[in-house]
Amino acid sequence: MNNQEKEYLEEFKTYLSVEKNFSEHTIKAYDSDIVSFILWLDGVSVTEVNFDKLREYLHFIQRFEYQKTTIARKTASIRTFYKFLFREKYIDSNPALSLSAPKRPKPLPKFLTPEEVEQILNNVKIDTPAGFRNRVILELLWATGMRVSELSGLNCGDVNFEENEIKVFGKGAKERIVLMSNRAKDYLLQYINSARNLIVNPAYKTPPIDEDSPLFINNTGYRLQNKTIRKVINDTVEKIQLPKKVTPHVFRHSFATKLIENGADLRVVQELLGHSGISNTQIYTHVSMKHMKDVYESAHPHGGR
Fold first, then answer.
1. pTM
2. What pLDDT digit, counting tens, does each position of 72-128 carry?
3. Does 75 lie in the same domain as 219?
4. Is 252 a catalytic residue?
5. Is 156 in the same domain as 74?
6. Which of 74, 133, 185, 275 is catalytic?
7. Which residue of the set 79, 133, 196, 252 is catalytic?
8. In principle, which of 130, 152, 217, 297 could form an S-S bond with 303, CB 3.0–4.6 Å?
9. Do 271 and 144 belong to one domain?
10. Residue 73's CATH number
């Protein structure tokens, strides 16, 4: 680092402290980020850097597998530094004006095979009313692809048994219709007709089965919370020693992946999941393709070659 760049850096830290009112911790982080950047330039002056050079640096630091928050901060450091240089007229134009951190590829969602789902379902204890309720909940997660928050938010009036449909309120209070299998419907009918009224402790009042009453309730008669559903899954997976981390969202991923594997139209899957854009649904085509390749490599005699 030459003397001129050291002067830029000292002025920059003063700017961050006095004008931006950044904390001492943040100033140290920004200072470290810019020093690392200058060292990477290896003799190229900070005043001669263009946008492509900045993007090259951001791609370079991706190799170190920093957390997203760290990448975002390093990007912000460079943007702020060049904004300062431009404001002080040390450069004629700001090369970092439209700089943003490169997006990391999204990891493929985890999913269960139908056999693993059945193993989980069949190991839910249903010898109590609450246990039967838990089985019904997991049946619905698998059959509909609902988010756990959508399921816990269901009211009795949201279910249309004649059409095998459930009205769901998703993100942004957007309403959509999901479909349930005959098996899930049968379990749900049994729950409503028998188990639901037996769940509540006698010391509490059981809510009626009407349009606005919560569909799934706890032992005090109130709406069942997401954490209870998560605990049911965790306890069951632990009992059967399934070597996978399973969450309610994994049921959703499994639902979508199975539909895609069986040839379902992407737009239909998008509607069922309540995705705002098709790009969120397309990830399941990659999951399906990866699964197909894994099966091929393990099953074909030349697959792994």
1. 0.64
2. 899 999 999 999 999 999 999 999 998 887 666 667 788 899 999 999 999 999 999
3. no
4. yes
5. no
6. 275
7. 252
8. 297
9. yes
10. 1.10.150.130
